[in-house]
């Protein structure tokens, strides 16, 4: 009798853990996932620093009147979209990748600043974001192959002599993961702004911060469920491993007050990279706010890096 009760308890515990792991997976990665009413709570106020990234009406109007919509279908059947803003008489382009649960319109100020400096900009909607199709976010891993396809499309349609990859937050992890893949000779530089080392490490940090839980067993189970439902494990989505394979120059940017993607990730990524590399850290800047915290220093650093590396034949 006691043995039967113990077996039932073990089965119930296993089922509860499995349900909790599935919840964690869906909460983190499923598009438009809605929390059950039981878990509803007042949302934390948005960081006021992001107010500086809201485009003016004039900027919105210029963007809307000058961009074109690019599309292609991924090998796994998803219709993916991107905004393209062409700079006249320029043979240099930047592919700009947005962050988690975001879209390119949140980076309008970045897009227009790059454009004013003479760079054409291709800004994709990541899968399961914005106008692009997709059920699950990929944390940069499947997106790295999407970006490789956008690179090929950009070369085919416009023929730029030089291309840089640039991303913020999850977009930064995406371009780092892309940089570890074989790329055309036109891709000459990478800029990552506050990217994480891996999806595993980022979720581990958030599990501790938001739920006060250790990684075992939930993160291990959620990673397995992600492999079954989304096609990859959290540990596979590793910018840390990919930068070791990168051979083109990379600029690493991070805010020193970033606690969402911890600042310590910057040192680990920088140390792991085997390519020519530079680092720019911004005191007091929180997550994804290095640019508005110090716009002049940020853009001077970015454009100096691009000028030196995109002009290499």
Plain-language structure description:
The protein has helices at 2-29, 57-66, 108-116, 141-158, 170-179, 199-211, 218-230, 239-243, 264-272, 290-293, 295-310; strands at 68-73, 79-85, 92-97, 120-124, 162-168, 187-193, 250-255, 277-282. The chain has 313 residues and is α/β, with parallel strands linked by helices. Helix 1 (2-29) crosses helix 7 (218-230) and helix 4 (141-158) crosses helix 5. Residues 37-43 have low confidence and may be disordered. 43% of the residues lie in helices and 16% in strands. It folds into 2 domains: 58-197 and 238-313, Rossmann fold, CATH 3.40.50; 199-236, no CATH class.
Could you name the key traits of this structure?
313 residues; alpha/beta; Rossmann fold; 2 domains; 11 helices; 8 strands; globular
Topology:
Elements: H1 2-29, H2 57-66, E1 68-73, E2 79-85, E3 92-97, H3 108-116, E4 120-124, H4 141-158, E5 162-168, H5 170-179, E6 187-193, H6 199-211, H7 218-230, H8 239-243, E7 250-255, H9 264-272, E8 277-282, H10 290-293, H11 295-310
Parallel strand pairs: 3-4, 3-5, 5-6, 6-7, 7-8
Antiparallel strand pairs: 1-2, 2-4
Helix pairs in contact: 1-7, 4-5
